[in-house]
Amino acid sequence: MDKLDNYRLSLGQHQYVPIMIGGMGVNISTAELALEACRLGGIGHISDAMLPFVSDKKFHTHFTKTKSEKYRASRDTFDKTNVKFALEDLHQAQLKFVESAMEQKKGDGGIFINVMEKLNMAAPGETLRTRLTASLDAGIDGITLSAGLHNSSLKLIADHPRFNDAKIGIIVSSSRALKIFLRSGKRVNRLPDFVVVEGPLAGGHLGFGEDWNEYNLKDIVIDVLDFLKKEQLDIPVIPAGGIFTGTDAAEFMQLGSGAVQLATRFTVTQECGLPTKAKQVYFNAEEKDIFVSTLSPTGYPLRVLQQSPCINSNVKPQCEPLGYILNKDGNCQYLDAYEATAVDEKGRKLAVKDKICLCYHFSKYNTYTCGHYTYRLKDTTNKLASGEYQVLSAEHIFNDYLYSTDHKIDVPQPEDELESPAEFIKSA
């Protein structure tokens, strides 16, 4: 029977196991998770979402505190025009985080970074250039451009000495979006090394409108494959979103895909950055708990669990320490929503109904972004005597995707039935 391990992804002269783990932020796709994918021969993504903040937590730097103190005077106003990131600090945070991951790299796989265009950071072009340049400076194996069309992203780094060395890909949700990116690439004589096609069942922000449920990942993948064939472009296509079993993955490979990008089942691994409590919320989720919302101030639809603590919050905007969503004019949809929200009789702000402070709640792991099939996670593991679900290793799930057939999922022996922790690690 066909299985994912029968295939390999070729990027230039390098061959990979055809599994990419998606770049989930903020620090949900940890360096540890990416390193495991790399060790096993696949590609692991780290995310560049809010890396100055992540650096402060991981390396005890002070980028967030320094920025907050610099713009203290604007905390009680809605005018954030002058709240900016220090580009040198941003470069150092990105460089330090990526270098740390690359120094630990083992195995035949790759470490890529997911870089979002929609992370405006109050100066979209300047901060994006800085993040891309720092990643290349740090020796990253590849860059996946996400959350936007990236019309000018390649131009920003065209003069970098590693511009043609690192693998560069784009996430799209249609052949139309890919055509736009290809035009921008031709201007700097640089085609993408791979294309991730993200469908409507993916987690987090979606590249669709309110009609997202009218689309189907396989149809989009076939359309992109046909377009590339017509243009005589040999670029690997990597489907993402709703690929829950190894058989799902193998079916996409049979269509002509180069690999698959996976995330949902890896959100609840030992190596994932989600807090333990949040992982159990994911395991316990039912299909009715998952919805596509307009809560994100980015303007993109956002798939989340209704148990997310961020919903109906009234947290004061955190632009001075954070401010990653501010546009070039210092505006953010949450700022507008917060300002328009009424106060109670004691002058306290009521719950903000239609938007969330994405920066704050992502930093606190309060936004339970999820893939459509999160409600199936409970079927991939064991419910223990304690009432909690067993958290598996990334290696176990990676190998289940590689070797499983007939949509079967390898559920290991329950942890609480094993004689010792060492026996659990060996079996997992």
Can you walk through the features of this model?
The protein has 428 residues and is of the alpha/beta class. It has a domain at 4-274 and 386-411: Alpha-Beta Barrel (TIM Barrel). 32% of the residues lie in helices and 13% in strands. A hairpin with a 2-residue loop joins strand 1 (9-11) and strand 2 (14-16). Helix 4 packs parallel to helix 5. The chain is globular, with a radius of gyration of 21 Å. The protein starts with 8 loop residues before the first strand and ends with a helix. Residues 420-428 have low confidence and may be disordered.
List keywords for this structure.
eight-stranded parallel sheet, single chain, TIM Barrel, globular, alpha/beta, about 30% helix, 14 helices, about 425 residues, three-stranded antiparallel sheet
- Overall pLDDT score: 95
Across the major sheet, the strand order is 10-8-7-6-5-4-3-11
Termini gap: 24 Å
Tally of separate helices: 14
Q: Report strand %.
A: 5-15%
Poorly predicted residue ranges: 420-428
Query: Based on CA inertia axes, which overall geometry fits?
Result: globular
The SSE string, one letter per element, is EEEHEHHHEHEHEHEEHEHEHEEHHHH
**Major sheet:** 8 strands, parallel
Question: Which structural class should the secondary elements be placed in?
Answer: alpha/beta
As a percent range, the share of helical residues equals 25-40%
- How many E strands? 13
Question: Which architecture of the domain at 4-274 and 386-411 would the CATH scheme give at its second level?
Answer: Alpha-Beta Barrel
**Which fold does the CATH topology of the domain at 4-274 and 386-411 refer to?**
TIM Barrel
Per CATH, the superfamily of the domain at 4-274 and 386-411 is: Aldolase class I
Radius of gyration: 21 Å
Q: Class of the domain at 4-274 and 386-411, according to the CATH hierarchy? A: Alpha Beta
